């Protein structure tokens, strides 16, 4: 990719509410939240139409879920009853909007 193409892609990302900046090794991206009163709200439907939606097949998802069940239960146990319980931070209503 040429520098000109890269700069053009960065400019397009900024117009779409995606902020890209160069990090040490690669571009870093963060997104601008879009709410009903923001300047990008009128483009939400346009963006939604341009997305390609995908979903996992039920049988494949079930196989993956079964293969990860024991690992997930171990994490749940660690953070709910084990040594990790002290590391859990709880969000309160006052923490949000």
Characterization of this structure:
The protein is mainly α and 97 residues long. Helix content is 44%, strand content 10%. The protein folds into 2 domains: 1-54, no CATH class; 56-97, no CATH class. The chain has 3 helices and 2 strands; from the N terminus they run H-E-E-H-H.
In short:
The chain is mainly α. It folds into 2 domains: about 55 residues, no CATH class; about 40 residues, no CATH class.
Q: What are the key terms here?
A:
single chain; mainly alpha; two-stranded antiparallel ribbon; 3 helices; extended
SSE layout and pairing:
Elements (H helix, E strand, L loop, with lengths): L2 H13 L2 E5 L4 E5 L12 H7 L7 H23 L17
Q: Profile the largest sheet.
A: 2 strands, antiparallel
Q: What order do the strands of the largest sheet run in, or round the barrel if closed?
A: 1-2
Number of strands: 2
Strand content: 5-15%
Low-confidence stretches: none
**Structural class, from helix and strand content?**
mainly alpha
Q: How many domains would you count in the coordinates?
A: 2
- The shape is extended
How confident overall, as mean pLDDT? 80
What is the helical fraction, as a range of percent? 40-55%
**Rg value:** 21 Å
The SSE order reads HEEHH
Cα(first) to Cα(last) distance is 42 Å
Please count the helical segments.
Answer: 3
């Amino acid at each position: 990719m040429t520098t000109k193409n890269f700069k053009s892609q960065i400019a397009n990302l900024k117009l779409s509410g995606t902020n890209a900046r160069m990090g040490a090794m690669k571009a870093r991206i963060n997104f601008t939240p879009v709410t009903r009163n923001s300047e990008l709200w009128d483009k939400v439907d346009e963006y939604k139409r341009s997305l390609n939606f995908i979903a996992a097949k039920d049988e494949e998802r079930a196989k993956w879920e079964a293969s990860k069940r024991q690992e997930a239960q171990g994490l749940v146990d660690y953070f709910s009853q084990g040594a990790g319980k002290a590391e859990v931070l709880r969000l309160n209503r006052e923490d949000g909007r």
